[in-house]
Amino acid sequence: MLNLVLFGPPGAGKGTQSQKLIEKYGLIHLSTGDLLRGEISQGTALGLEAKKLMDDGLLVPDAVVIGMISNKLDANKNAKGFIFDGFPRTTAQAEALDSLLKSKKSSITGMIALEVNDDELEKRLLLRGKDSGRPDDANPEIIRKRIKEYNDKTTPVAEYYKAQNKFTGINGIGTIDEIAAAIDAIIAGY
Ligand code: AP5
């Protein structure tokens, strides 16, 4: 199985690159952000709870996202592999993912981190905010809060995979195809 963690701050291009990887490698895309927005649009209790935090640029509780990922892994038993996009975002989530995969006799192949500076992130998200309909893209204050949340709670996840020799960082600035080619080169080396 090819199990990738596509990592990086808000607006780094995780979703964009995931679309390319799904087509090329036949992987299942698991984006916790998309799953949570699905819950919100269906008006579930989980969605209502998550919405307040997401609109405010804060992480939702670990148990919520771990539960969603666990369900998706169970529902896709014959998958060739998964792209984890926006998950894990805390060390507790990374540990939970390892044990979920271990129980299925699988593991993370590698983490690929898209490195993009804060000014570029803010520019991309504000630009997208005009038509994405995402409340968390709507103003610079919330975008900065999302980046702060990433720096405070999510950057330690990179250390978690570095300790397992599974981390590769790449420049996330460039054309979408240039970045996709850099990701392909890493996958070819696994
Ligand atoms: P989530 O949906 O995961 O959002 P995010 O991490 O903030 O990331 P984005 O989707 O905004 O950015 P991206 O890196 O995918 O970039 P994209 O390809 O879209 O999370 C939203 C919220 O949900 C969180 O704040 C939290 O509340 C909650 N949540 C989700 N997962 C959670 C978890 N595990 N634990 C707890 N809470 C969780 O690109 C961005 C823009 O840039 C697009 O307009 C795109 O066209 C453009 N772009 C892409 N690549 C390039 C390029 N190379 N050059 C120029 N522009 C580019």
Question: How would you portray this structure in words?
Answer:
With 190 residues, this protein is α/β, with parallel strands linked by helices. The chain has one domain (2-181): P-loop containing nucleotide triphosphate hydrolases (Rossmann fold, 3-Layer(aba) Sandwich), CATH 3.40.50. The chain contains eight helices and five strands. The N and C termini lie close together (11 Å). Helix 2 crosses helix 3, helix 4 (62-75) runs parallel beside helix 5 (91-103) and helix 6 packs across helix 7 (140-162). The radius of gyration is 16 Å and the shape is globular. Strands 2-3-1-4-5 form a five-stranded parallel sheet, sandwiched between helices. It has helices at 14-25, 32-42, 45-55, 62-75, 91-103, 118-132, 140-162, 176-188; strands spanning 2-7, 28-31, 81-85, 110-115, 167-171. Bound molecules: BIS(adenosine)-5'-pentaphosphate. Residues 8, 10-16, 32-33, 36, 53-54, 57-60, 65, 86-87, 89, 93, 124, 128, 136, 146, 174, 176, 179 line the site of BIS(adenosine)-5'-pentaphosphate.
Short description:
InterPro entries: Adenylat/UMP-CMP_kin, Adenylat_kinase_CS, P-loop_NTPase. With 190 residues, the chain is of the alpha/beta class.
Task: Name some characteristics of this structure.
190 residues; alpha/beta; Rossmann fold; five-stranded parallel sheet; binds BIS(adenosine)-5'-pentaphosphate
> Helical element count?
8
CATH class: Alpha Beta
> How many β-strand stretches?
5
Q: Strand order within the widest sheet?
A: 2-3-1-4-5
Classify the helix fraction into a percent range: 55-70%
- Strand portion: 5-15%
Helix-strand sequence: EHEHHHEHEHHEH
Structural class: alpha/beta
Question: Compounds present?
Answer: BIS(adenosine)-5'-pentaphosphate
CATH architecture classification = 3-Layer(aba) Sandwich
Q: Which segments are poorly predicted (pLDDT under 50) over 5 or more consecutive residues?
A: none
Rg (C-alpha, Å): 16 Å
CATH topology term: Rossmann fold
| Morphology | globular
- Summarize the main sheet: 5 strands, parallel
| Total number of domains | 1
Mean pLDDT: 96
Separation of termini?
11 Å
CATH superfamily grouping: P-loop containing nucleotide triphosphate hydrolases
Protein name: Adenylate kinase
Catalytic activity: AMP + ATP = 2 ADP
GO molecular function: AMP kinase activity
Region (NMP): 31-60
